[in-house]
Design a protein that fits this description.
The protein is mostly helical. Helix content is 85%, strand content 0%. The protein has one domain. α1 crosses α2. The longest helix is centred in the C-terminal third of the chain and has 34 residues. The chain is elongated.
């Protein structure tokens, strides 16, 4: 199955947002509270909140940054 360019962009932003949120929330939480019995339960909540923030940010900020960087390229 091939995606259109716009579908590919949407999928890319979603996957990058989710992956970055997962890695960063896991690492930060691990540093802050250490490994505990309820770590994964706490992390899942933090991860879901992070996704609610990172996905809309990915669709608004990333295109603005790309446009700005494209303007710097000769």
């Amino acid at each position: 199955m091939k995606l259109t360019k716009s579908q590919g962009t949407v999928l890319f932003v979603l996957l990058v947002s989710i992956a970055m949120t997962a890695v960063m929330s896991f690492g930060i939480l691990l540093l802050r509270i250490g490994w505990r019995a309820d770590f994964l339960k706490i992390w899942l909540g933090d991860f879901l909140v992070g996704c609610c923030l990172s996905i809309p940010t990915g669709f608004t900020v990333v295109p603005l940054i790309k446009k700005w960087v494209d303007g710097l390229i000769e």
